[in-house]
Amino acid sequence: MSQSLQLYINNQTPNVFFKGEGKKHGRSNQMKLLVKEKPKATMMSQHAAVPTEIPPHWYNIIADLPIKPPPPLHPKTFQPLHPQDLSHLFPDELIKQETTNERFILIPDEVVDIYRLWRPTPLLRAKRLEKLLDTPARIYYKYEGVSPAGSHKPNTAVPQVWYNAQQGVKNIVTETGAGQWGSSLAFATSLFGLNCEVWQVRASYDQKPYRKLMMQTWGATVHPSPSDITESGRRILEMDPSSPGSLGIAISEAVEVAANNEDTKYCLGSVLNHVLLHQTVIGEECIQQMEALGETPDVIIGCTGGGSNFAGLCFPFIREKLKGKINPVIRAVEPTACPSLTRGVYAYDYGDTAQLTPLMKMHTLGHDFIPDPIHSGGLRYHGMAPLISHIYELGFMEAIAIPQIECFQGAIQFARSEGLIPAPEPTHAIAAAIREALHCKESGESKVILMAMCGHGHFDLPAYEKYLQGAMVDLSFSEDKIQASLANVPHMS
Ligand SMILES: Cc1ncc(COP(=O)(O)O)c(C=O)c1O
């Protein structure tokens, strides 16, 4: 057994011992027990670090921004949204989290208790990849694929469902692209005994039977989107009966059902402030782990679809950067087929195709942009999280776009050196980290590169099959297509 694997197992064991203690004794007793039994004994080696504690809070970056982000607008009146405008979709506590200026939000004990199933997640050093690339850089990755659903998405699915359950909600609806979010929500609803209905983008519903089966195993009902169940879906099917669907269309369907049913609320897997907030548990843990290893990142890299895994890892580090403690380059990586940050406009736009959601100021390719069917289904979203868009505009981060063949080349190198088979989405972060490591080889710099490895690709093997057969293509970027959809972005005076 490798040294890093041993450390990982050794350090997880005490957490299993304390599972369930939180409810009996309350948070403070539980933390005391942890401290007594294992006094900050973060175990580490050159290869890996796993902290013994899950952070007590999520981090809200809005509290530390020098300029606050622009407010969302009502989709009909174009006036700033009131919290009650969201109450047909979300429970009160999540609406509060969406708009709060508080810096830290305490993670409820019940949520921490479930997080213990897979948190803290490992931070690993990719020593064998470094050797393969012959680079002086040190590459670290924070691995979220150890969750029951196989990605970072349960970090927010669990609290979202918990807050809904607290308010007595019985039915949850959502959309899913690649199936990662839908399966995470199905997992969370099964734990709290809520019903879950998922609209899965048609292309992935057909291509990814195993994700659908995971959702069904956890008790969810899954519809292909566009469907004939909703007005939004029927409208799309009338125009194109064989529409492959898009996240924008699937969101419209789920939001429509929540808006029309008193007993039903909607959950979103990315983009919104409260979703990004919940994901910061990743970065808070990682700061502890990097400190324990005595390392400071020079470059932090994550893939961006709606932006939640990237924000989750990076926002706590941006806090430290704003304090002047560290100065890493923060780099988002998106697919060239759906480049909202690098090729979109920064404007108010709808979050969905049918224009049912509030208008959000974000980098967007236009709400009716339907990206080409790249294998990273989770990165096929027309917009970017408003908070990330705002931080990008403030100049605290940068963004690049990478085509999918280069991403899968990197994924194969990663799998053959580190062993993990990444989901198609984080292959973008891997490809960018490899670019950076090869620059270091040329310059002789021994930078510390930290990347977000947000999920495994065990259900995405058809994408690997395409690549290995030499059948994968880089879908060409169509300027005309983007210009056509940008023309439909609402014009604000
Ligand atoms: C594994 C994985 N990574 C990344 C993403 C992109 O979402 P986000 O940018 O919100 O992290 C998804 C979305 O489904 C995903 O499943």
Automatic annotation (TrEMBL):
Question: What's the protein here called?
Answer: tryptophan synthase
Role, per record: The beta subunit is responsible for the synthesis of L-tryptophan from indole and L-serine.
Q: Which family does it belong to?
A: Belongs to the TrpB family.
Query: Which cofactors does this gene product need?
Result: pyridoxal 5'-phosphate
| Biological classification of the source | Eukaryota, Viridiplantae, Streptophyta, Embryophyta, Tracheophyta
**Keywords attached to this entry:** Amino-acid biosynthesis, Aromatic amino acid biosynthesis, Lyase, Pyridoxal phosphate, Tryptophan biosynthesis
Which Gene3D superfamilies does the UniProt record give? Answer: 3.40.50.1100
Q: What is its EC number?
A: 4.2.1.20
Which source organism does the UniProt entry give?
A: Helianthus annuus
**Which GO molecular function entries does the Swiss-Prot or TrEMBL record give?**
L-serine hydro-lyase (adding indole, L-tryptophan-forming) activity; pyridoxal phosphate binding; tryptophan synthase activity
Cited CDD domains: Trp-synth_B
Q: How does it assemble?
A: Tetramer of two alpha and two beta chains.
